[in-house]
Design goal:
Strand 2 (92-95) and strand 3 form a beta hairpin. The protein is 47% helix and 19% strand. The protein is built from 15 helices and twelve strands.
Length: 374
């Protein structure tokens, strides 16, 4: 009995130390499963009934196999999948039904690792409204520009003064005050919800210009097909209009999803088997954008779409946007083929580089902003 108590005490201390350092390891779920396997072995050794002992040994074997799967998939996928770490770990929370929204008044150190190598180390500064800060000293001018989109517009993996909104406002020479309403992993449905529920008006009043940056992956996001989707749900109503129908998932589903995101099994399946964007998602995408344009134009706000048209699906989106009379700028107009040779548009994390953000912002200013500022 004394030996068993001592063994349980030692096991408890070791488990506590293991779990305390879990968040710092690259394979945290392997630690969870190995710890669970050790405890079920302890239960098997302490149990007197054969049935209990057998069940505990079976559970221990399952946990051990899960740990081995996690470790195996880590070595298989670590050279393909980027791992992010933030300080503080929690820098976003659920805001109404918009989705994962940055916590206000927070400076977050954001790091990215690929194959164990640090590839990005930047700071995200979030203002009192939960928006990415645009550090231009000549803010608070009469004209206002609202930026919408996903991590591309938010500025994933770049500093506050390397985002597209920063470069646009800086190039304007203070003629525009900018508001970055974009978010990590978002699509057009978050943009529409921010406008519908009055968040944009409360923060920015009536913008003189709205710019939305879109990539083909937004199609599956607006249809709820992204693995991380936690935003508002829109459906096609009669007349092909976008109608809001609540959140895609409950808060409990979202919390569980964020917890298992550290699993390499989940990362692997998300990376290889998640549903891609497809042409059948375009009608809902267009309906959401039409509703967005209608609401903005009621206040006299021009709506500009910037599309990354680098594959066939994106070119189909471009044709559909033009057919529906959207004011759309293709990335190929900003970067003709001869200008892209030897100059990648994205960083290792597949998000725009500071140079790309600056070039897009300069093009937008010259072709859109300069005219409105006169």
């Amino acid at each position: 009995m004394r030996f068993r108590l001592l063994a349980l005490t030692v096991l408890g201390l070791i488990s506590g130390l293991f779990l305390e350092h879990t968040s710092r390891t690259m394979v945290p779920f392997a630690v969870f499963f190995l710890t669970a396997s050790a405890w079920t072995i302890a239960i098997a050794l302490a149990a007197r009934a054969d049935a209990t002992r057998n069940r505990a040994l079976l559970c221990s074997s399952v946990f051990f196999c899960l740990a081995m799967i996690e470790i195996t998939l880590y070595f298989v996928a670590k050279s393909q999948i980027i791992v992010t770490k933030t300080i503080p770990a929690k820098w976003r929370g659920d805001v109404n039904d918009i989705g994962s929204f940055p916590l206000p008044n927070l400076a977050t150190e954001f790091r990215e690792f690929l194959d164990g190598r640090l590839i990005a180390d930047v700071t995200y500064t979030i203002d009192a409204n939960g928006l990415r800060r645009i550090p231009v000293p000549t803010q608070k001018r009469s004209r206002k520009v609202a930026f919408f989109g996903c991590s591309f517009m938010f500025g994933h993996g770049v500093e506050d003064d390397q985002t597209l909104p920063y470069y646009f406002v800086e190039e304007s020479g203070g003629a525009f005050e900018g508001f970055n309403f974009a978010g990590e992993g978002w699509g057009p449905h978050q943009m529409l919800r921010e406008i519908e529920d009055g968040f944009v008006r409360r923060v920015a009043g009536t913008p003189d210009l709205a710019i939305y940056e879109v990539i083909p992956d937004h199609l599956r996001r607006v249809a709820g097909g992204a693995p991380w989707e936690d935003g508002p749900k829109y459906e096609l109503c009669p007349g092909n209009e976008a109608c809001y129908s609540g959140a895609y998932h409950s808060i409990y589903h979202n919390l569980f999803r964020r917890w298992i995101n550290d699993s390499w099994t989940v990362k692997y399946f998300d990376n290889h088997f998640a549903r891609p964007s497809r042409p059948s998602d375009i009608p809902l995408f267009i309906a959401v954008l039409k509703r967005t344009r209608t609401l903005l134009e009621k206040s006299g706000t021009p709506f500009i779409v910037v599309l990354w048209d680098q594959n066939e699906l994106a070119r189909t989106m471009m044709k559909t946007l033009k057919a529906n009379r959207f004011d759309v700028i293709a990335l190929s107009s900003v970067f003709p083929d001869h200008a892209r040779k030897g100059h990648p548009l994205t960083q290792l994390d597949r998000h725009p580089s500071p140079e790309t953000n600056e070039a897009i912002a300069m093009y937008l200013w010259k072709n859109v902003g300069e005219r409105l500022a006169q």
